[in-house]
Structure formats: structure tokens, C-alpha cells
Known about the structure:
Strand content: 15-25%
Oligomer: single chain
Number of strands: 13
Shape: globular
Helix content: 25-40%
Distance between the termini: 32 Å
Radius of gyration: 18 Å
Number of helices: 8
Low-confidence stretches: 1-45
Strand order of the largest sheet: 3-4-7-8-6
Order of helices and strands: EEEEHEEHHEEEEHEEEHHHH
Largest sheet: 5 strands, mixed
Amino acid sequence: MAGNGTSPGTTMISGLMPLSCILPCWGIHYCGRKYLNFKLSGGTNMNAAQYRKELVENIEHNALGPNDTFQFTCKECGECCRNRATPVMLTGLDIYRMAKGLGIDPYEVLARYTTGYLGDVSHAPVVVLRERLDGSCSLLRNGKCIVHSCKPIACAVHPIGRVIDLTQKKSIYIRQPGGCKGAVNGRTWTLDEWLDTWDLKELDAPSLSWNLMAGMVAEVMHPIKLEDIGRDVIWELYQHLYGDYDVHRDFTPQVEENSEAIRQFFKSHKMLK
Length: 273
């Protein structure tokens, strides 16, 4: 689920605490690494309790069952790829799949096509698709997506949204109100039909494994003040969450390896013990 009702995306909840809260008003915090350009979130008038309450209410009201229907026919207008109200949030699985599809290293994907910041709620590294100066997605070439067949899950589920519920360890798909031209007089789809179109069901298990790792990071980082989080911590988490994946190996076992590396880092770092 995106942070704005008209934009597609994915939100993770763990005990009703989202991993990342897409918020405006970011302050800049440069980390001095080749692949990093993180921004510290600058706050919002909505506190965490209000956000959780509205998030849960939105999910309950808009949740789709397997045979529930919605209307959509893509008009190829590209509006969902330009001048978005909220950025497209990425997971390590998204980076891995794009790197594999493009035949490049995950760190190269991160360097070319993404930027990031520290989540206002999670205080963990959040990576989003980079936009050009004209507001278009950096993955567009001549109006077409260069990773169409392996696009980020947040893009593939559009025009619906997805929530990862870590308590129940499942994906929840939700209607998102208004905005997209394709939803007007479009084809009628059941949720299952739409998920099968993009093979999204096959991505549920690896996506859950990554989100469980991200949830572990959020639980540790959330109590720490943003200004107290050092560059060494950001870089270590950034690597294991997004970059340290071999596209020639299966994804899920590498998540387990990175999860263990993060646990060991937390144990060894004096601020995080």
C-alpha cells in the first residue's frame, strides 16, 4: 500500500507497526558511500498511533478476497511512472529481480536507479526508485519500462495495493481509491486472475522472508533516535537488506544469510545491544 490513496505500493506491518512510512518533508543526510544518498525523514503531523489506526482501518475496509473483483485495463499512459505523489518503495527482492533481469549486479541497480532515506517510523534504510528531474521514473526508456517483465512488486500489483502482515505471515491485497485512468470502464478481474497474470503468488514466500528480516531490523532500530544512527550502521544494514545478493543463487537462502549477518552485527555493536 502506498502512502497516498492514488499510488500503488506495498506496506509491511508487524504487530501493526509499518516498516516504512512514506512521508513528505525529508531532510538530507549524506552517508559518504558510493551507493548511498540517504535522507533523514523530517517528521509529520500524524503520530505513529494515528498512522497504525488509519492503516488497519484502511486494510479492513478495502481488503480483497481471491474472488473479489476490480476493474482495470492499462491505457499505457505512463502517469503511474511520472510525477508520483509518493515514491515507489523497493525491497531486496525487487533489487535482486531487477538485477537478474538486467544482467547486472544489485549494487549497480541501486546506484543507477534508486535513492533512499531512513524511515520515519522504522529508522531503517528505505530504498525507493529514483526519479529524473522531469519527474519520470529512471527505469523509463522512450516511454517504456526497461524492467517490465521483472518490475518491482509495488508496480506489478497496480492498481491494487499489497500489505505484508508479519503477525499472520501473509500478503493482503487491497483496493486503492481513484486516480488511475485504467480503472474507468476497464476489464473486470478477480484478485486471483490479476495475481496469476504477474506470477505474484510465486513471489509471496521470498517476499515474506525479506520482510521478516526487515521487520527484525525495524524492531531494533525504531527506539534509536535518528540523529544517533551512524553511517556505519546505515551502511551495514543497507548492504544486507538490499545489496548483498548473488543473482546466480536462489534468493531466500541469501535472506537467511543476511539475516544472520545482521543479528551478529546487532550483537557486536555497542549502540545496538
